[in-house]
Amino acid sequence: MPRHGLLATSCTLAVVAAGALVAPALASAGDDADRAAPKPQTIAKGLLSPLSLAISRDGTAYVSQNFAGMLMKIPPGGKPEVVYAAKKKGTEVGAVSEHLGSLRFATTKGRKAFLWAVGGNGKAVKMADLGAFEEKKNPDGAVSYGFEGLDAACEAQIPPDVPAGYTGIVESHPYATAMKGETTYVADAAGNDILSVSPKGKVKAVAVLPSVPVVVTAEIAAGAGVPACAVGKTYRFEPVPTDVEVGPDGKLYVSTLTGGPEDGSTGAQSKVYRIHPKTGATKLLVEGLVGATGLAVNKKGDIFVSQLFAGQIAKVKKGSNTPRPWLAQPLPGDVEWTSRGVHATVNVLPPEQGKPNGKVIHVR
User: What are the residue ranges spanned by the domains of the chain?
Assistant: First the structure.
């Protein structure tokens, strides 16, 4: 039971992903709308941590190599080329999106987090200081996480690495972006919120995602090393938004990883929400996912969700809240839909040995 989201730092993500990978209890594909997807085509390979992906109208792919601090461009049928490389070692580059020739991405290093824009001249320009906004506003600062109703005697027995209770901390990790008109939306995995950024760089909080309540069972308590007095109590995890997309209805669709164990030991706690971009009204759409790190919405309103820790891209038909298996792939990270089909990144975490084998794949 970590204090904050698994994606708050890249190192945490890599460590957790190296542990047990447990497939979720997805519903079986039972109708012709969920036929097995065709064999994917590999667009690029040999990538290091390609956690974020964007596809332009002409089929150009923009993919991050987060841990290498690089953003790549892959023209249709062409070879990858570097769009941006961070100057400071240890800077993460990710949160890529593209819209009508404009490109957005984010950099994170410690408490410093920035949104960048790339226009027609190909130069990257800082748009907004997301880290400064988090330090000043901390939108989830009043949200309580941790145990509910734990008495003092029981709380004293909780191990130090399991925070018994706390409110939202000051931390920013922009993990995904999406554009609508001239506004850029940011999913801040460590801030637990969705932000909007104007063309002039003004940052606002659109919505703070709900905490995730999990009832502590005897099995969960034993696995986390917490005392028996905590069994039956509710623990509220951080939501950890990992992707944001604009749906055909103009609403924002957001996947969440959940700031707790993603190995299935506390159940399949990843979710998908729909958020009104103006009011911030938030509706839970899909539950029962494991390690949701990316999503896409097609023009019909069907949702595709990559599940990093389950090795599966799931599909949720419009009007349904049931995720069904769609495409099995190792360590899928991000997923994008265009009229050309579905693109995704896979093998997004570096192997313990050998060269990076991250890929961008395409399914028509």
Answer: 10-363
- Token pair 């005697």 is found at 153
CA distance 217 to 231: 5
What is the rounded average pLDDT of the residues 96-108?
96
Q: 227: buried, middle or exposed (CB in 10 Å: 19+, 13-18, 0-12)?
A: middle
| SS3 state of residue 364 | coil
- Amino acid identity, residue 69? G
Q: Of residues 241 and 79, which shows the higher confidence score? A: 241
Domain 10-363: CATH superfamily, name plus number: TolB, C-terminal domain (2.120.10.30)
Per-residue pLDDT tens over the stretch 157-185: 999 999 999 999 999 999 999 999 999 99
HSE (side-chain half, CA atoms, 13 Å) at 122: 6
pLDDT at residue 146, as a whole number: 97
**Of 136, 206, 211, 207, nearest in space to 170 by CA:** 136
Q: Is 301 left (phi over 0), alpha (psi -120 to 50) or beta?
A: left
- pLDDT for the residue 156: 96
> How many CB atoms within 10 Å of residue 144?
13
Which pLDDT does position 3 carry in this prediction?
Answer: 39
Please tell me the number of Cα atoms within 13 Å of 312 on its side-chain side: 21
Do 67 and 80 contact (CB within 8 A), yes or no? Answer: no
Given this model, what pLDDT does residue 264 score?
65
> Which pLDDT does position 260 carry in this prediction?
73
Tally helices (H) and strands (E) across the chain: 4, 28
What is the pairing mode between strands 292-297 and 303-307?
Answer: antiparallel
Distances (CA, A) of 273 to 268, 281, 282: 15, 10, 7
